[in-house]
Design goal:
Elements lengths: L15 H5 L34 H11 L4 E6 L2 E7 L4 H12 L6 E7 L3 E6 L26 E6 L10 E9 L6 H11 L5 H9 L12 E7 L1 H8 L13 E8 L2
Antiparallel strand pairs: 1-2, 1-8, 2-7, 3-4, 3-8, 4-6, 5-6, 5-7
Helix pairs in contact: 2-3
C-alpha cells in the first residue's frame, strides 16, 4: 500500500505532547512506502531498486566498497555535519548509497516537533525511487537517542515486530534533559542499563530515551546542531508539517 508523506506521518508523534508531559511511549513511526523504479543519476549509473529480501546482501557488498562516514546536510538554515557509525554497517551503507545516488537531494524535513525531533528524507514530489524494502535493526547499547542522534524511522510495532527500519526516512533528535528517575524507568521498560556517561548526557544536553532499543541510531551531529534547532523553530500546521517547506540536499564529504 502506498501513502503520501502526510499519511506516513509518525502516528506516535501525534501524541508527543502527551509524552513530553510524562507519558512514555510516543515514538517515531514513519513507514516505508515506495515501489520499485529504476532511474539513471549523475553519481551512480543506476539506483537499483531493493527489496527486503535483497537489501542485506546488496548493502553488505556496498558497505565493503564505500567506507564513507561523514555526511553534510544542507538546508536554507545552514549545514549539518554528521558522522555515521561503522558499528551499524547496513544503515550506514544504505544512507551513503542513497546520498551518492542523489536520492536525498529530492527530500525535505517534512515533520518538525520542537523539543523532540526533526524528520527528513521524504517528499511528495520525489521522482527518484529506491524500492520497497526495510533494513534489519542494528541496535547497539553504545548509541542512545541523545540530543543530536541520527536514527532511522520505521513501521509501528503492530506491523513490524522485528523493529526493522524504513529504507529512507531519518530523524535527528532534539530532545530535552531528563531526570535520573525518568532514565531508571526507561531502563526497566527496555531491559537495559545506561552507563554513567550516558546518564550524564541525558541529564545535561538531553535527548529522547523513550526511543532507545526501539529505533536504530546510526550516527550523530558533530557540527550544526544550531541548524537543527532553527528547523525545529519552523511554524507548523496541525500535523506538524512546516508551513514553509525545508528542502535538504545531502552529500558525503572527505574523512
Amino acid at each position: 500500500m502506498n501513502y503520501s508523506k502526510k499519511t506516513h506521518f509518525l502516528q506516535s508523534l501525534l501524541c508527543v505532547m502527551i509524552f513530553l508531559i510524562g507519558i512514555a511511549g510516543c515514538q517515531p513511526n514513519t513507514e516505508e512506502q515506495t515501489k520499485s523504479e529504476n532511474r539513471e543519476t549523475d553519481t551512480d549509473a543506476k539506483l537499483e531498486p531493493l527489496t527486503s529480501e535483497s537489501a542485506v546482501a546488496i548493502l553488505t557488498a556496498y558497505e565493503k566498497e564505500h567506507a564513507d562516514s561523514l555526511i553534510l546536510i544542507s538546508t536554507r538554515h545552514g549545514d549539518i555535519k554528521l558522522r555515521l557509525y561503522p558499528e551499524t554497517p547496513l544503515h550506514r551503507a544504505n544512507f551513503v548509497r542513497l546520498t551518492k545516488a542523489g536520492f536525498y537531494d529530492q527530500g525535505e524535513f517534512y515533520r518538525v516537533i520542537k523539543g523532540f525531533a526533526v524528520q527528513g528524507g521524504d517528499s511528495d514530489t520525489r521522482t527518484l525511487k529506491n524500492g520497497a524494502y526495510k533494513i534489519p535493526q542494528e541496535f547497539n547499547p553504545k548509541y542512545i537517542h541523545k540530543r543530536g542522534a541520527l536514527a532511522m524511522a520505521r513501521y509501528g510495532d503492530e506491523r513490524n515486530p522485528e523493529k526493522e527500519s524504513s529504507s529512507h526516512n531519518f530523524y535527528i533528535v532534539q530532545g530535552e534533559p531528563k531526570t535520573v528517575q525518568e532514565l531508571r524507568a526507561f531502563e526497566a521498560k527496555h531491559n537495559m542499563k545506561y552507563t554513567p556517561q550516558q546518564i550524564a548526557l541525558y541529564t545535561t544536553i538531553g535527548g529522547e530515551p523513550s526511543l532507545d532499543q526501539e529505533y536504530t541510531v546510526f550516527g550523530e551531529v558533530i557540527e550544526g546542531m544550531e541548524v537543527v534547532d532553527k528547523i525545529a523553530e519552523e511554524p507548523v500546521d496541525g500535523q506538524n508539517w512546516p508551513r514553509d517547506i525545508v528542502p535538504h540536499t545531502i552529500k558525503t564529504i572527505n574523512q
